[in-house]
């Protein structure tokens, strides 16, 4: 008996070097943002320059990530995320797509400014076909500030990208220990480290380098998405612009955007995506000219119901469902690469 146990222990001991030391490969794609920012002093948490620190310095500042995975870095861009255009967005998506296709890459982390982080994450979730974890991460304080949140966010993002349990669950936003689904997370406050929220809740939480899961996403993403970055040519998407709803509006912004070439206008309406009675004729006129009218809401939670506040069937409009205006803008742009049919675009808004 004792002999068998010893033999077994020996056998396991010999196997261990081949099993437990194979770390997953994670690539960090750096794009700039506050997480790569630099302030004049450690008390500058709000006054600093974004997009300064190169990717190698970001990784070297958190040496603990090398215990989680074999981590390498790529500097894709060095921008503050408010200045990201279609060109940069497509550059990021193509870079990530190229990486996930490599057999020796197990997961990808994108460091990104928080301003448009939710947009890039949603775009990746719609256009990159993979079951490998893709994690978009940022920070609210620059690395030079007291209690900078970037290092732990990066550590957690790498842990998530390296986790086998994260496979096939889509694109994530990792901020402040929370694991969010790309489609419904949004930046909701511009001063605190718990800036990102999803009205439907987080998918899970990341504690001491390990993810704990509580939900899945009910909408389409990864391999079941009909959009594919590989089918998008050039550096620009169809033009979609947002008009913010309020009291006492002028119709001029809608008309000007259409004149400038907008193929769809997201109406960030009051309340339930409402449209002022004196604005309705302008929107109907533009719709008849072939501009898609998409009702979203300026209210950060809830959703827009078709044919409730406005007769969308009658007008040929689309509702954005629970997508906020900036996410609706991206889905509309992708939809327009495939169709001009409002009914078909509406189907996409229900499914993604
Ligand atoms: C670490 O990742 C790099 C880049 O993907 C790769 O070239 C290298 O072989 C990896 N190292 C190990 C030990 O797997
Ligand atoms: C996803 O689809 C691509 C082709 O579009 C295929 O190569 C890949 O194996 C698929 N991945 C999974 C996990 O199904
Ligand atoms: C629309 O608005 C009213 C109150 O303003 C609310 O009671 C109703 O549930 C809203 N929701 C939707 C999805 O239309
Ligand atoms: C919603 C969706 O498309 N999920 C798929 C993501 O990829 C995994 C692995 O291929 C599938 O199992 C999911 O169905």
TrEMBL record:
> Is the keyword Protein biosynthesis assigned to this protein?
no
Q: Offer one example of a GO biological process linked to this entry.
A: L-asparagine catabolic process
Q: Which reaction does it catalyse?
A: L-asparagine + H2O = L-aspartate + NH4(+)
* Keyword line: Hydrolase, Signal
Q: Where does substrate bind?
A: 81, 114-115
Q: Transcription as a keyword?
A: no
Family to which this protein belongs = Belongs to the asparaginase 1 family.
Protein name (Swiss-Prot/TrEMBL): asparaginase
The record lists the organism as Caenorhabditis remanei (Caenorhabditis vulgaris)
